[in-house]
Sequence to fold (521 residues):
Amino acid sequence: MPQTQAAIRPAALKTKLAMDRVSMVFERDGKRTEVLNNISLDVGDGEFVCLLGPSGCGKSTLLNAMAGFLAPTGGAITVDGEVVRKPDPRRIFVFQERGVFPWLTVEGNIGFGLAKLSKGEREQRIAHYVKMVGLQGFEKAYPEELSGGMKQRVEVARALAVNPDMLLLDEPFGALDSITRLTMRGELLRIWEAERKTIIFVTHDIDEAVQLADRVVVLSARPATIQQTVNIDIAHPRDMSSPRYLELRDGIFKQIGLAHRI
Amino acid sequence: MRDDSPVRTRLLLWRPFAFTALLLLFWEAGVRYQPSHLLPGPLGVAGGIVDLVRHGLLLKYVVASLFRVTWGFALAVATAVPLGLAIGWYRRAEMAINPILQILRPISPLAWIPIAILWFGVGDLAAVFLIFVGSFFPLMLTAINAVQSVPAVYVDAGRNFGLSPAALMYRVLYPAVVPRLIVGLRITLGIAWLVVVAAEMIAVSSGLGFLIVDARNAGNRYDLVVAGMLIIGIIGLLLDLGMRSLEKVKSFRWGYSED
Fold:
């Protein structure tokens, strides 16, 4: 059975990010919209957490608050015990799509956050991450010459190149075709296993969440609250037809209120 | 069936020239058949151009006009673009200044002629001022618009990588607005070229606009009038081609394709 306690995670991990009763209320033209309601969640160092919820539920807003782009109207978000007040290169946000700079080449994008390094170091770092995301031969290409999957790879490489502690990914593969999406998930896991960053990954795709995460945090419709937290206790590589995988996935389907028969 | 043979391609390439030659032929024939004084024929115009070259006036007038356009346009770019970028970035500034802009913008640059002469007298400065005024508002609006349409993801990504406000300006905002700015520059240079001709008809005694008025006033030399018009058209085309070549620069080109 899926776990329903919020705090369950491997005890060995120290807390990286802590959210304490985070709420967010937008006011626009005198209209109050409550987007996040009282969200508390701890994420361990090196953990891979998926935030799963229906479109428009506020999961992107939550991720933006973690990045420091938005200030929560209630509660607090801390990273390594420090309150998040503004964006920081230690936690890089990967956007849904079109986050790469179209005026820079692949190299220019990946090296964007490395202005402070010496030229030699920068080139070395760029070459390393070009290789990691498999874009050798495209160093001088501009984004408009790349496919959607390649652009997303550039963005992930640009994020990794500054050696952040955390990656915040906002439906990064949402705009890709289903085959490319599967490949990209595999690559993300490979990179995560190599670099052990803390990853918070927002998605509305149940399969994606169960394939990737150590822990799936299911959010309710707006205003978002944590409905359930599910530990995915299957080792990678995960067999998508194993009974345990299906059990966990179906549990979440039920929790969200979807029957998987059409 | 389509025929892509080289002969056909070469014919296609020549088609515009052939068509132009045909029109010129009709024009010349028409003028000879009915020799009214309504329009000089193409041969007369060609003779006019030769006359201008022989008197050393063609180069002199072209240079005079280009000189005024260059100064007026360059001054407008140097002031309107940074100002527009700043105003576009600070929404409150934009809200404050917008009503004034909207009133000044539809005033034809030619309506400024009396004021230009009052302030600067008859001469180069007045003409330069008119071109400046005619270029300033469209450029400023382009710059404001360009900043406001920069996708928020670029700015957020820039901030995420820890850029200072100044670095954000030149590493993100500036490259992000360049494609739109170039389009604005191209359109505005076209306007500046229109304005210089008009300004020269009134405010100075040299340049292509002056040539047209002077040729009529001093002896109804309509061959020179049409020659002047033709040269204005050709130079306008060259200016536009020059600006268009900027759009082909690789790091700018992304802004012109529908991605």
User: Anything to note?
Assistant: The domain at 1-90+167-262 of chain A is CATH 3.40.50.300 (Rossmann fold). Chain A has a mean pLDDT of 85.
